[in-house]
Design a protein that fits this description.
- The chain is of the alpha/beta class and 231 residues long.
- The model has no long low-confidence stretch (mean pLDDT 95).
- It has nine helices and eight strands.
- The chain is globular.
- The chain has an eight-stranded parallel beta sheet.
- Bound molecules: pyridoxal-5'-phosphate.
- The site of pyridoxal-5'-phosphate has 13 residues, from β8 and α9.
């Protein structure tokens, strides 16, 4: 296993440094450990180092880990593409769904989340690059989708998420993040309660923090290369 303690300290230190460089408090930026393709033992070890929030991309893989690690009381985020016919499983077992991008999915999640659970927290995934065929909703469609989520008592709208195209030029990467931050600011005029801007991965979380990210989703920089193949 890679040195998880060292990796976690290094990523946390880089987050703190990026915050200081941009006049932000480190407490404003939450670290989501992306554990897809990582073994249960590595997640358990990372939890032992104090990390509480983990992200998974595949429903079956995520459910198996949630069950295996139920004793730890971790916070699980679903961050992968989600078919409507698997929405009920995500609604039943995850705390947060970050990849919501269409009304049909909102309706399926809302129906399946039980009244006796806390509301499922929702991030709307936005296609900030404007490329056809990518996951995420077009920015113009965002206001009606946000309204739909806000009207569902079993859901709670928390903010936006994006996965911009990787780009070698940090300033180009930063522009995509700034577009998402601007969309979030617009949306907040109508939904003052939203507070989460999920953007930035292992290769670009520093630029994302510069642009206002409140949640960075980091996988390989924490766990090393992914081992298990996704199912
Ligand atoms: C895999 C993944 C990540 C983490 O990617 P790394 O480059 O390993 O940090 C973050 N967000 C999403 C949506 C992912 O699918």
């Amino acid at each position: 296993m890679p040195d998880l303690n060292q990796n976690l300290r290094r990523v946390r230190a880089a987050i703190d440094e990026a915050c200081r460089a941009h006049g932000r408090e480190p407490a404003e930026v939450q670290l989501l450990a992306v554990s897809k393709g990582q073994p249960v033992a590595a997640i358990r070890a990372m939890a032992g180092l104090g990390q509480r929030a983990f992200g998974e991309n595949y429903v079956q893989e995520g459910l198996a880990k949630i069950e295996a690690l139920a004793d730890l009381g971790l916070e699980w985020h679903y961050i992968g593409r989600l078919q409507s016919n698997k929405a009920a499983l995500v609604a039943a077992h995850f705390a947060v769904c970050q990849s919501v991008d269409r009304p049909k999915l909102v309706e399926a999640l809302a129906r399946a989340r039980r009244d006796d659970q806390p509301p499922l927290q929702i991030l709307l995934q936005v296609n900030v690059d404007g490329e056809a065929g990518k996951g995420g909703i077009e920015p113009a469609q965002l206001p009606p989708l946000a309204r739909l989520v806000a009207e569902c008592p079993t859901l709670r709208l928390r903010g936006l998420m994006a996965i911009p195209e990787p780009h070698p030029d940090p300033s180009v990467r930063r522009q995509a993040f700034e577009r998402l931050a601007a969309l979030q600011a617009e949306l907040r005029a109508e939904h003052p309660g939203i507070d989460t801007l999920s953007m930035g991965m292992s290769d670009d979380y520093v630029e994302a923090i510069a642009a206002g990210s409140t949640m960075v989703r980091v996988g390989t920089a924490l766990f090393g290369p992914r081992t298990a193949t996704p199912t």
